[in-house]
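FAQ: What does a ligand-bound record look like?

Like this one, built around magnesium ion:
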Amino acid sequence: MDRDFPPRRTLETLNFDNSYARLPAAFHAKLLPTPLPAPYLVSFNESAADLIELDPAQAARTEFLEYFAGHKVLPGAEPLAMLYAGHQFGHFVPQLGDGRAILLGEVVNSRGQRWDLHLKGAGETPFSRSGDGRAVLRSSIREYLCCEAMHGLGIPTTRALCIVGSDVEVYREQVETGATLVRMAPSHVRFGSFEVFFYRGQQAEIKILADYVIAQHYPELAELSDKYPRFLREVVLRTAQLMAKWQAVGFAHGVMNTDNMSILGLTLDYGPYGFLDQFDPAYICNHSDHSGRYAFDQQPEIGAWNVTCLAQALSPLMSVEQAKAALSAYNDAFGTHYIELMSAKLGVAPAPDVVPLITGLLEILQQNHVDYTIFFRRLNRFKQAGQNDQIRDLFLDRAAFDAWATLYRARLQQEGSLDAERATQLDRVNPKYILRNYMAQVAIQKAVQDRDYTEVNRLLALLQAPFDEHPEMEHYAGFPPDWASSIEVSCSS
Ligand code: AMP
Ligand code: MG
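The answer part, i.e. the structure of the complex:
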């Protein structure tokens, strides 16, 4: 094996190729970050550094802080703010854009994989509107941990390289301190990146952007005569599958505006997100979402609504029939994948007739306020013969559980399922650890009050391997403490 492959790069030898910067001026505003004063390292994520072949030792250099707190420009980078618009809570906002994030550039690794380095909290841009261009440490920690938690769970997401902190004061509901987060993704193009040009009637730009995204990220479609509807269909499928993954794991995004919807089907822009504790379909993680537009059980439908907005923005590139045909793939893609995922969580074969088993379970989980993650992790040890008290005890209504368990047992027997085999398999499917709000809160408190980042780093390592046993972190696998239910997560970040 070649010992120099993959290569280990320094900050100065990252391989930049800035394709977005080469698009016409209408797509972005070129500018430099505003330096974050007296920066210090809060956390560095080696597994994201691997993606760009950055030598982890580079994180110890002063220059690391200078580049990622906006004091210096990485050689080969070409910083810019991306333009976009979006439907926010159902209403179209004609111009948003990167108001506090700057795309530093795109690094291509030796496997040819492209990674945007996106610096969030980098200062004002022409798209800042009334905002200050900053991000606070609290929200940066939340985004950093959740990117990596989702990745650990196998859910498509942007990644996070590091957090850099500063004592600079930033004003939210209260005075907080600023930070930058380096986010990574093959692309940060959003549904709203297309919508902005549709609403301005700039059809040439819609085509340029579609051709660009197809060439970069959907190259298998590039030569097809119907490449635009095929592209739309591909985004529809990825979005539907992403929604199925969120529902199966119990993740609520909180702000599913079309400017937060990735053209690659990634989970993007972590704000007031939440993982379910007790199973509650009506769970609203965003304290500012008064109508519950983005409640947990609304997500699949909102995903469908959002791809309709994208279809409208792409409508100059296809016929109405083509757009409708592409959109019509959504429900099936969602339903099929959701059944696959939920069947896998139960350890049964995915088949249409498993649906009553799933819906019956969700009903009793809800009625009994059962913790979603703990239930499934315990289910891994379900015995076909004998007692299942550890699972049964999660339910106030024991008879309801017994009735469901009878159906479940019958299903397992019908499939010839073996308890030991299924247990091993399910330990790879049902996570032991998820990023509960209170866990992020503990890490944030230590970081903000004591400048102690050990909990951020411990959680990072834990959540990157959420299916594994971590005996020293066992307490995070249990029920959330009582105070967890009083945490309110607002949009402010
Ligand atoms: P978000 O809710 O974080 O997805 O942001 C929605 C829009 O508001 C995006 O265009 C952001 O760039 C912008 N934005 C959010 N916070 C700030 C801020 N502090 N300063 C400038 N722009 C912001
Ligand atoms: Mg956003």
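Follow-up question: can I read anything off the structure? Yes, for example: Residues 11-188 form one domain.
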